[in-house]
Amino acid sequence: MQSLNEEILQTVIKPRPQESFKGTFGKILLVGGNHQFGGAIIMAATAAVYAGTGLVTVACDPLNATALHTQLPEAMVIDFKNQEKLAQMASQVNTVVIGPGLGEEAESLAVLKTVFANTIDDQVVVIDGSAITLLAKEKLSLPAGKLVFTPHQMEWQRLSGIKIADQTPEANKSAQEKLNGIVLVKKHHTEIYTPDGDWKLPIGSAAQAVGGMGDTLAGMIGGFTAQFRKNTIQATLAATYAHSAIADEIAINQYVVLPHQISHALPGFMKKVANSNKDHQIGFMN
Ligand SMILES: NC(=O)C1=CN([C@@H]2O[C@H](COP(=O)(O)OP(=O)(O)OC[C@H]3O[C@@H](n4cnc5c(N)ncnc54)[C@H](O)[C@@H]3O)[C@@H](O)[C@H]2O)[C@@H](O)CC1
Ligand SMILES: Nc1ncnc2c1ncn2[C@@H]1O[C@H](COP(=O)(O)OP(=O)(O)O)[C@@H](O)[C@H]1O
Ligand SMILES: [Mg+2]
């Protein structure tokens, strides 16, 4: 397993081409946020907007729409119970993120099934939080798309059947190969298993042990994969590295890092990386 280092940032985050418009920088649909967990999808969507995704749509319980718009007027919103609209949106975007605050109720399962039935091969599908738990519990078949699973250790236990104490690199690798996608096992020093090799994140700290930290990472991976579409694995690695690199900077002066602070620091962080990358204006498109 390789140690992930900051070079991945320059590989992925390039200056924006001036001949461009919002569509150049990708479309994302984030699905989650039931009556109990509205904050989770707001945090994920905030990360996607601040990462620079061209167009961001949230599918959630409409109870959360006002709160979402108060925080994030850049995002559009649809009712996740509107199956027709949800199905249509799920097939039209570059990246779908499903799971932050989705919950595990009958309604949550119906939403998950609709999304899984409508994604297509070209898309990135980030499967996080409740979507992982439901996928494991209901033994659903996997959706079409380039799959990125972002479980914490307990979610990984549910999905892979490997108990936390037995989650060795060998066992994790063999489970990732069966899933046919990218797997992040989130913990202190997160591990990232991909068809092109495996990485360990050497940065990050306990200042990140706050609810919503993973929802924010899911939104960042969504935003990076929708925007930097050349290479899904590299975009996922860069988002994961940036998430903890920003947290480490904030943690120099703070005992705890709030998830939304990472999102708010992202445009400045990405500008610094892009500035050091001026000669290479490539990397956005397929
Ligand atoms: N403000 C919000 O709306 C929030 C909503 N959230 C959502 O709540 C739903 C449930 O997710 P949770 O993760 O809270 O609950 P889960 O029940 O899925 O996982 C928590 C359980 O896993 C155990 N665990 C073991 N190792 C762990 C590790 N490395 N990291 C985290 N937990 C570990 C914990 O002890 C606990 O028993 C998800 O949809 C999530 O997105 C959470 O993100 C918290 C914030
Ligand atoms: N002690 C820690 N050191 C480093 N990173 C941590 C630590 N605790 C949590 N994290 C990071 O915070 C995130 C937590 O994700 P998750 O448990 O899904 O949060 P939530 O669902 O509440 O948003 C992961 O990226 C994890 O690696
Ligand atoms: Mg989570």
TrEMBL record:
This is ADP-dependent (S)-NAD(P)H-hydrate dehydratase. Keywords: ATP-binding, Lyase, NAD, NADP, Nucleotide-binding. AMP binds at residues 186-190, 214. It holds the Pfam family Carb_kinase. The gene is nnrD. Its cofactor is Mg(2+). Its EC number is 4.2.1.136. It comes from Limosilactobacillus alvi. It catalyses: (6S)-NADPHX + ADP = AMP + phosphate + NADPH + H(+); (6S)-NADHX + ADP = AMP + phosphate + NADH + H(+). Belongs to the NnrD/CARKD family. The lineage of its organism: Bacteria, Bacillati, Bacillota, Bacilli, Lactobacillales. PROSITE patterns: YJEF_C_2, YJEF_C_3. Residues 5-273 form the YjeF C-terminal domain. The keyword rRNA-binding does not apply. Homotetramer. (6S)-NADPHX binds at residues 40, 101, 152, 215. Catalyzes the dehydration of the S-form of NAD(P)HX at the expense of ADP, which is converted to AMP. Together with NAD(P)HX epimerase, which catalyzes the epimerization of the S- and R-forms, the enzyme allows the repair of both epimers of NAD(P)HX, a damaged form of NAD(P)H that is a result of enzymatic or heat-dependent hydration. The keyword Nucleotide-binding applies.
